[in-house]
Structures are given as C-alpha cells and as structure tokens.
Design brief:
Strand content: under 5%
Number of strands: 0
Distance between the termini: 86 Å
Structural class: mainly alpha
Low-confidence stretches: 151-179
Helix content: 55-70%
Radius of gyration: 30 Å
Oligomer: single chain
Order of helices and strands: HHHHHHHH
Mean pLDDT: 78
Length: about 180
Amino acid sequence: MAKRRFIGGVILALALIGSVIAEPPTTVVIGTLPQPGWDSLSPPQKSILAPLAADWNSMENLPRKKWLGIAERYPNMKPDEQRRIQQRMREWASLTPEQRSKVRGTYKDFNQLPPEQKAVVKQKWEAYSNLPSDEKQRIRESGKSGKLLQPAPPTEAAPPSVSQSADGSSEAPTETAKP
C-alpha cells in the first residue's frame, strides 16, 4: 500500500513538473492604460497642451500620461514656470523624431554622471547661457557644444595671474567664463 502511494505521488509530481516545463512562462507586461486622444481632452487641457496638438494622437500612452500630469499641475504653477513649460513644449514639438531621440539619450547620459561631473556640466551650461547669442552660434558651429557631457580632465586650481600695467601698479585678475 505504501509503495502504491509513493508511486502515485511520483507520477503526480512528474505530471505537475511536466505541465510546468511544457508551458512557456507567461510574461507580464506592465503598461500604461490608454490615454485620451486629442478630441477627448477638456478645453483647459487643450489650451495648456496646444503646442503638442499635432503630435498628440501619435504619442505613446506614457508620454501622454506625463503631459496630462503637467497639465493638471499647470494652473497651480507660478507664471514664470507656466511660460517655461509652454516654451519647452513648443521646442519639443518642433524637434524631429531623431532630434528627440538624441535629446533623450543626452538626458540619460547626464543622469548617469557622478555628482561632481554633473556639477561641472551645470557650471559650463550656466557660463554658456550667459554668452551673447552670436557667441553661442559660433560655439555651436565649431562643434564644441556637444562636448558638455564629457568628463573634464582633472586640473589643479592655479591662482589667477596678476598683471602689471605700464606704470608698474598691479591690476586685479580678470577671469572669463568658458563653456
């Protein structure tokens, strides 16, 4: 009798294992629920998200959800934040898919930098932002603007040199910001 139960248990175990092995594991897809099309948006949402109108229906659900979240917070933002959001939406809408992909890659690369290098990039960006527009254009044309995410080589801080004028008096050091 014990032999019979043992054999029955082994057969049952093999049957269960066989059914598990025979079926491939199911994959779980975690996705975003479908988001409304442009025609389904409320008038305030359409007003806020107007720069994205042309691309809205071709967007994936996740970016739509992100933009809808921004539109929900928009009325509570300060006016300068609202202007910045509108400007960024217009800029984003004007990019080609390839340019958007490049921007996403650059953003991803930036987020993977160590904090020290992020600080260097931010400092370079501030210096670049303060340049006159003709100087920015010259830098863009020279191709140096794409090197912002490359780590800066370690340098020792050298004291600024003090120059002497024709009368022999010392002048205060002058420093120029370089992007």
